């Protein structure tokens, strides 16, 4: 899709209808008749971070902000920025590590909008596993040390930023002998990998964590934001885009970010819990009780802000742990586009 492409109501009824709009015939409102900037957005299916985007579509926030989005699934077998390029998408959801590594390698990409202020990951294992867990009194250090020499499932290719963050967490307690296995970015693949014995433990993130535990087949060993600095102190993930697109379409980028924040605000408002839970069920296929648990517990760290102090701590941690080279020139200023009117 070329940079700067615009869709008018008359030529893109199909796109507009995806946003739940009425037909563009006479009497259309000013919002419906305006030109909309088209943005192709890449996301993993069936994961909790999608919900503010789903709500923003449902409530018409993207259209209000002058954009129309087209969602496509993120491939499981490609590192993040490579997936963004291969799918010809303008926007994707990535960890700071993924974008920082890409920037260090010379990729022209920047974060322009925040999303999750922490990495909401848990270590999970089969229900009959004899590995220690925090619920039964083990410390997070004991949980990670017990995984020395084990096979461990991660949701990205080995060598990608998120896997290296996980390795840094293990290294905090002196564990380096871990065999990492890419079980795929969709949480639906983590359970089978554990059930089949492909891995002995794995990372899970919402809604996968809740789905696995509610199934009765798996249990949580540790919630990592309560443990190692790599998860406790470092920023989670946000929205990134090619710098060429950000330079060509600053208003579209700003509109996207504002719409997502409005979606976050809607999700975080307890008065909207019923409709938010319904949207999560429709988007993920989760049972209603699990959706309710996720909505009530997982969205507090969400915001489109990209706090400079936290991201600078994160980048220093990356350099110290090997996610970035020790001499990395990646800084907040080089990583974050702050011209999008967040």
UniProtKB/TrEMBL annotation:
GO terms for cellular component: periplasmic space. PANTHER family: ALIPHATIC SULFONATES-BINDING PROTEIN-RELATED, TAURINE-BINDING PERIPLASMIC PROTEIN. The keyword Signal applies. Keywords: Signal. It comes from the Bacteria. PROSITE patterns: PROKAR_LIPOPROTEIN (PS51257). Residues 51-272 form the SsuA/THI5-like domain. One of its GO terms (biological process) is alkanesulfonate transmembrane transport. The keyword Membrane does not apply. This is SsuA/THI5-like domain-containing protein. Belongs to the bacterial solute-binding protein SsuA/TauA family. Residues 1-25 form the signal peptide. It holds the Pfam family NMT1. It is found in: Periplasm.
